[in-house]
Amino acid sequence: MKYYSKQQLNNIAKFLITPFARSGRFLLLAAALAGLTLVCAGCLGSPVTQGSKTNQATIPTPSPKSLALTPSITPSRSSSTSSSKLPISETFTGNGVKKTTSFTAPKSWKIVWSCDLSSHNNTSYDIIIHANTINNTLLANGVETTCNKNNTHGFITMNQPGKIYLVIISEGNWTVQVQY
Q1: Topology adopted by domain 6-179
Q2: Is there a contact between 37 and 3 (Cβ–Cβ < 8 Å)?
Q3: 114: closest CA among 87, 99, 95, 100?
Q4: pLDDT tens by residue, 18-56
Q5: What pLDDT, on the 0 to 100 scale, is given for residue 88?
């Protein structure tokens, strides 16, 4: 479990707040920073289960006892029957700040994302996707981009096996698919 000092968190906050404060996206940044602080501080310790049906994501109401981010969306799963090695994908949809259920990733896997500008009055918005181990270790890479008319989808290849979950932070609607 990795802990960050107060000074390190302040430096991260200053780095993240400066561009957002000027663009009027401070509220999203505050939610993102709160979610990432919980992840970094190792506050996510609830058991995780996976389902096999598609659920529309909803924002959980935190109890006063615990403000930890808990899994709020489960994937829809699919696999291809066209080859002996079956590719598997898990699809998550939603908006706002969400934590996915965990999944077991092989050595190489992909995060495929898309965003919907119409869900944000056809204006640009940010989408951040961080992959974490179930021990709350933030993996390298991830997605930190702006959804706009020239950038509505993409993917990144991850090279970290194990039990993984995603934290997705966005102002508009998104779809994230994990392929392995």
Answers
A1: Jelly Rolls (2.60.120)
A2: no
A3: 95
A4: 544 444 555 555 555 555 554 444 444 434 333 333 434
A5: 83
Give the confidence band of 131 by pLDDT, cuts at 50, 70, 90.
Answer: very high
Tokens at 67, concatenated: 């403000």
Residue 51 CB contacts under 8 Å (≥ 6 apart), including other chains: 74, 75, 101
Domains of the chain: which residue ranges? 6-179
**Which amino acid makes up residue 133?**
T
Spatial separation of the C-alpha atoms in residues 41 and 9, rounded to whole Å: 10
Residue with tokens 């996976």: 50
**Measured in Å, how far apart are the chain's first and last C-alpha atoms?**
26
CA distance 36 to 40: 6
